[in-house]
């Protein structure tokens, strides 16, 4: 059975949801015309609401994954399930799935016969009902006017450091055998019912989550931020009236749709295919080397992404990806960044109109469309491979708008126990971008749909019994190209107390691809250093293990692929890379044909001669 993103659910029968779009992208008939000035003013107001929600959430949160790494989302959704705006400082993998959270909530409400009322706050994290994965918990506040008319939803999502899984942390749970082993499932439950706190539910949270003061504190911050968004949305409606805000929203979504359709129409019609690979569990011959297959078909102003040929789901390991919540967001983000580059188009309203021309298909039972209760908590690295493979497919259609292969990421859960209390820290170890037409790849950053910030060392060391003893770019590792690949980082972390670690990641076996003569990138590495300094290599997916005080973990990030013939890179740029310490004099000569003298100057005559030989 093949299922499209947004399909496979019972239709809503609730009167308030009779027109809700399956994928949050369908449009109601415009009820009234609106002038573009008013529409843009309302657009700015909506965006400011989401930005305020995001900043308030950051400032109220306890954990560094939210207040420093910004692994959260905030958005306003209309009654049709369409996203009107999102927080600019959040990650696409948090804000993008929010319409799916709302639709999943309504599906579950319909099945149970529940209703929404003023004062309700819904907690939801089901990966088979729109959520990205279990640790990304949403708090949904339905927005009602004074006359009890439902006008939309104010929603925040955030990654939580523990969700009651089989081992500490909310990443690296790579031995979860099914969805139940991944932690608590909140299937659209009322955290507040008509304004009254559901004390039993909050007790369940505190009693079943490690580091509960921190995690529950973050959840309470989400509730507050969602309530702020609801208040601001009501103020906007009171200022302009509901019909005007709806008309502006319709016009803005139509505008975003037109931009996307125009960009698709500029692509040559046809089908473009590519294949990517995921490490999986390299120490397990039966659960490694997973294939991601993508075919992008362009026909007029419509675009279809088909994942037929992707590896079957893994029934007992959590590298499967929710089609709605992970796969769709990975594809949307990649297409948006390629076809509507903000450096060319400027600001574009980020709403559900952008996804109307895009259709996503995945065979049921594959990695990209698993069947419950297949586990999904470690879907992060696989989703990045989906995005990267879409990029690779589109090299055939728009070679000057894409980048070479990206360096995928690792996520590490550090944890321990002090007395009767757990401490938990989540570290996203960044990758790098491949080179792209006109630009070198970015170094040591989160890639594609992740887009979180690096965690400051000062924050890590002030809140956890960890010491960062090394943090630098890799030496002599940039993939050669007319535009070189980005460079991964090295981070070594020493344990000051007996602790635990678990890891989910990728990039140890399959190097990021180079393009148009550019070199492939360099793979990642993970090593365990005992107190005697002995190094032991570890796989990219590693379940929870104990470590001792004085030992260390060394993470080496992936380097992105190069773009274009290295022999055409200007001599001055190669010299600059050498002076900056990115590449050695030897690599400059071997990879780029650039001869650099002991005085650290380019020998142009020798370079010209060597490049003639190198291009033959």
The helix/strand class is: alpha+beta
Strand content: 15-25%
- What low-confidence regions span 5 or more consecutive residues with pLDDT below 50? 6-25
Largest sheet: 7 strands, antiparallel
Shape: globular
Strand order of the largest sheet: 3-2-6-5-4-7-8
Q: What is the count of β-strands?
A: 21
Termini separation comes to 51 Å
Mean pLDDT: 93
Fraction of helical residues: 25-40%
Tally of contiguous helical segments: 14
From the alpha carbons, calculate the radius of gyration and give it in angstroms: 24 Å
Task: Describe what this molecule looks like in 3D.
By secondary structure, the protein is an alpha+beta fold. About 30% of the residues lie in helices and about 20% in strands. The chain has 14 helices and 21 strands. The chain has helices at about 35-60, 65, 90-95, 100-110, 200-210, 210-240, 240-265, 325-340, 340-345, 380-395, 455-465, 570-580, 585-590, 605-615; strands at about 1-5, 70-75, 85, 120-125, 135-145, 150-160, 190-195, 195, 270-280, 290-300, 300-305, 360-365, 410-420, 420-430, 465-475, 490-495, 500-505, 525-530, 535, 540-545, 550-555. The chain has a seven-stranded antiparallel sheet with strand order 3-2-6-5-4-7-8, with helices on both faces. The chain has a five-stranded mixed sheet with strand order 1-12-11-10-9. The protein has a five-stranded antiparallel sheet with strand order 15-16-21-18-19. α8 runs parallel beside α10 (about 380-395). The radius of gyration is 24 Å and the shape is globular. The termini are far apart.
